[in-house]
Predict the 3D structure of the following.
Amino acid sequence: MEYLSIVFQEVYKILFLLVPVLVSVAMIVWLDRRVWAFVQKRQGPNVVGPFGLLQSLADALKYIFKEIIIPSSSNKVIFILAPIVTMTLALIAWAVIPFSATQVLADINVGILYLFAVSSLGVYGIIMGGWASNSKYPFLGAIRSAAQMVSYEVSIGVIIINVLLCVGSLNLNDIVIAQQNMWFVIPLFPMFVIFFISALAETNRPPFDLPEAEAELVAGYQTEYSGMMYAMFWLGEYANILLMCAMGAILFLGGWMSPIDVYPFTLVPGALWLILKILLLFILFALVKAIVPRYRYDQLMRLGWKVFLPLSLIWVVLTSSYLFYFNLLPVN
Amino acid sequence: MIAHAIFFYTFSIIAVVSAIMVTASKNTVHSVFFLILDFISISCLFIMIGAEFLGMIMLIVYVGAVAVLFLFVVMMLNVAQQKNQWFAGQSTSKHIPVGLIISTLIFFEIIIVIGGWKYKPEIFDINNSLANTSLSNTHSLGQILYTDYIHVFQISGMVLLVAMIGAIVLTFRQRSGVKRQSYIKQISRERVEGVEVLEVQSNKGVKIDD
């Protein structure tokens, strides 16, 4: 009985986190399309509901009622597993995101490593989908995404090391608290820029959306998917984007902390600050989608390996020597 | 304790079954997926014994990077057909002695490790180890790796670097006749040198050199 009550308590907590995340994913799709439209002097979705807010729900309803088509020559088990993997991985990472000093589902010691591990597993959903479709375009998309995501993960890892050097802990709450006096975006600004661009590449957002480049690959790894399975890929992708924004907000923008530590600002709950920061980063993501043309594949690889990796490695050396020389290394 | 045992047995059964399936499944890509499942359940076991840093690193390095490259290679090479040929062909028996030697070696290694556990239990006592148990996992690992074992650690890093350079040197080929793209050239191209207006005479055409 005791176990059961604990289990129910945890399930309740998880639902309380996941339902808002899923709803905000739907809203963020609307926001993405809206920002994109405004940059191009269009209206964007504005018919369903006030300001078109319910557009994503209408889309989801449409997807649910569509037939799920499974290609006869596909590998059925893996074909069905792929969107599930994408979706699950995008959602489980939210377990460690701290919304305030106490509001966190799992306050684990190695929180940032967990986030990094889960985001690096995200590539499997795409590879599995692309391979199991047993068709040329999805396979090409999957191969491209595998190479792309592995390359940009490396620089994200090195950027995380930069932040960790200044914090001295892998716990996400510690990382937020270490930014009490100054957000890391100020001393580590070049790293923030590289993190932002790598996050674009890691989530396959334009200008790095080569895995699904519609001009060359139809829709890349999702070509053979239809109905709810396609919607799950799509939801997982946007949940991943939100997650990357949250990661950026925690690593560089002070997480749930208010920008200035004075009276009226400290009244606002930490969760709201975190959400505002995530939204800010997401609007940047959406703007980039609207104003930057797609990269060529060799340019993408060159940027990842020959520009970002050496730059972030040099920055690790610089940060650590600065901290060591001025005796600022966090020791506990 | 019961919940702990349930989780332990779930993960270990998944690990063992997927390890068997790696070798037993006919499709090579399926084998790699089972290998990934094996890695994940083993990292879960690591986390269960309190080695959360090792578990996460296992996930990041093996599942996030190594297995992706594995999958990449297996998908590209289409090993599935070759594997069937190997098993169907006469040459199978050539692999047996090598496999036997390796498996007996691993078997004796396991015996040595487990024997040590049985006859000298104080070696494995956590209080005897160099680790400071009051610190978190990551801190104590770092304190041991970067103080007492710094040389071994550096040497293993150097070995990996040499292996990487060796692999690059072995596979690097200078091919002739390949047009290279120079970014600086492409960006610094001016309109004057890119566009040329020619007077075309009728019935003669234009010859473009390049």
Remarks:
- Residues 74-325 of chain A form one domain.
